[in-house]
Fold:
Amino acid sequence: MRAVPEPKNVAILGATGAVGAQMLQCLEERDFPVGELRLLASKRSAGADMCWNGRLLRVTEATPESFEGIDIVLGAATNPVAEALLPHAVAAGAVCVDNSSAFRLDPEVPLVVPEINPEDVAWNHGIVANPNCATIIGLVCVAPLSRVAGARRIVCSTYQAASGAGLPGIEELEAENQAIVEGTPMPEPRAFAYQLAYNLIPQIGGFDGLGYTSEEMKMQNEGRKIMHDPDLRVNCTCVRVPIARSHSESITVEFERPITPDEARDVLRQAPGVRVVDDPAGQLYPMPLDTSDQDLVYVGRIREDVSAPEGVNSLTFWCCGDQIRKGAATNAVQIAELLL
Structure:
């Protein structure tokens, strides 16, 4: 008989944001063994009530003293907040699963997607990093194929929803859509550099000297760490699209060994966290509308890369996943489950 996990005292840092609120819901949905649940946020958000398991919990201000008696911290705060507060949580004896990018590339911090490298949780020193949302969604599909055929190079274009900028991004897109429908003045953009409604913005993050954005380099830098492959090469273009929720990605992968589209479908059908939706004749393929508010990454449009030079083994596919759930909150709670 499987042992029942001992309840853990859990804190959510950044509980009132989009990811923090989703973490709260995921804990309930997945029946995580919670003893005490502590909701932490900024001074501005303190005092709000949030519903969990049919009861209201009061949000309190996050301070260095907020983590006494806590076993697991789920972090959904900004980099500066994570850097300032999570070391205090570790000092108080908690293990932190952090959704910011503050610790992802720290060699002393595991960077984990439970479907890919769950074993890395074992060597944590108090912090486990949650990868970037687009990295998670893409690699959940790439990793099982790589185990079979050895991924060498990835060319990826991401189509990232407004939810990637949190609640302000979602609210801004909704306000812009409403202004268009009602014929009222367009609100000044704040979450994004430009109006997102009826538009695409080919920039997420700041640019480096080569013209790539910080978001575009995450797939390579984080992918190398997650897949334990320092030679993995990734060329990525990240685009913000006027979708409320769920990121989409067009991915071409070059492999060391041959793999056919049919073989890839068979591998992906057996891969954890993946659903193959791939019937072009029936017009069935992944779409944000179908992948929002659930935890699987849908993959389809699996086909040969007809541009590949002779002798190069390359496939192209399309995948979609919920950025707030599998791209952030659910992945964090799955990591917390590994800590049990």
Notes: DSSP finds eight helices and 13 strands in the chain. The helical segments are 18-29, 79-91, 133-149, 166-182, 214-226, 261-269, 288-291, 325-339. The longest helix spans residues 133-149. The radius of gyration is 20 Å.
